[in-house]
Write a structure and sequence with these properties.
The chain has 3 helices and 25 strands. It is mainly β and 329 residues long. Strand 16 and strand 17 (230-238) form a beta hairpin.
């Protein structure tokens, strides 16, 4: 059994390592008006951003200047405009979803604290329709049961991506383990709209990510690159071993997961394929929270990253990814 598992992991690691990314990163600026940027999407030439302790959905132009904001829910905020840590909804995962002929922003709380961090929303990208609000507690409990979380561990959903008719939800491993949950888009929309109370089929993929200064990276953002049928993910490393407390920011990674690697509930070994973001050969000490692809083709993607370095502001980066094939050993 152990040999079979090792062979499977080796096979998946090779498939996930079939493409290498050339990363070109440029700082685009800091937005002090957006606290703790944690989720980002792109649609119709606009960036949409949420913060984990902000009550607003922000709309930004290509230069990351704020053009609009809408209140998601009224929360008491402190003098710096941030929601207190014990009350914050912890909006961490965000993606665009086309449903019922409308493009929505799917926004999810992390689930890392029962009650306060278990809200999901569907917000119309045009701002013309009423939002859908959903308690995610039942789904998150099902995730924890399927993942066999240890006593005291909590779900910590930090990223979501939509590909074909499937939705991939990324659990950050600082609370338990790095996991990838897969559900069908139809099932998730039925759950989000309240038509069903449970999602019947959830697939689970275990994932291993590289370590930096002894700490394993944790999933933090994701998007779908259609021309190469792959998920692009970000992962960050901080000196904290739980989903509640912040720790020293150590660095961040980017990588690809081909959808062909996500068959038969296969485990993922991403320790070799994830690429550390560096500056002059030194790990860039920024906590990347989300990635949003803007323009893609079969070889290149332009994108944006948002970082939350736990100082009450949000840092944005322009990103260009170039795909290079790597010969298999």
């Amino acid at each position: 059994m152990k040999r079979a598992l090792a062979a499977l992991l080796a096979m998946v690691a090779c498939s996930a390592h079939a493409d290498e990314l050339e990363i070109r990163l440029q700082r685009a600026g800091v937005q002090k008006a957006i606290p703790s940027g944690s989720g980002m999407s792109w649609h119709a030439g606009k960036h949409f951003v949420v913060g984990d302790d902000s009550p607003y959905l922000f709309t930004l132009d290509r230069s990351f200047a704020i053009t609009d904001r809408s209140l998601l829910k009224a929360y008491p905020v402190e003098v710096d405009g941030r929601i207190a840590k014990d009350l914050k909804p912890d909006y961490e995962a965000m993606a665009t979803v086309t449903w019922g002929g409308t493009v929505w922003n799917l926004i999810l709380g992390s689930g890392s604290k029962k009650g306060t961090r278990e809200t999901g929303l569907l917000v119309d990208t045009d701002g013309k329709l009423a939002s859908h609000v959903r308690d995610m507690a039942t789904l998150y409990r099902d995730f924890a049961v399927l993942g066999r979380f240890s006593s005291g561990s909590v779900v910590n959903i930090e990223a979501v991506a939509v590909a074909h008719e499937a939705v991939y939800l990324f659990n950050r491993g600082n609370a338990d383990r790095n996991l990838l949950f897969k559900v069908t888009l139809g099932d998730l929309m039925a759950y989000m709209s309240g038509r069903v109370e449970k999602i019947p089929d959830i697939q689970l993929h275990e994932a291993r990510l590289p370590r930096l200064q002894g700490k394993e990276a944790g999933f933090s953002g994701a998007d779908y690159w259609p021309e190469i049928d792959s998920l692009v993910y970000s992962a960050s490393v901080e000196g904290s071993d739980n989903a509640y407390d912040d720790g020293e920011v150590l660095g961040s990674y980017l990588g690809l997961i081909p959808l062909t690697a996500l068959k038969d509930r296969a485990a993922l070994d991403l320790t070799r394929s994830a690429q550390l973001i560096t500056q002059d050969g030194v790990p860039l000490k920024t906590k990347v929270e989300s990635i949003a692809l803007a323009h893609t083709d079969s070889r290149r993607a332009t994108s944006a990253l948002v970082s939350d370095n736990d100082n009450g502001s949000s840092e944005f980066f322009d990103l260009a990814l170039t795909r290079r094939a790597v010969k298999q050993p």
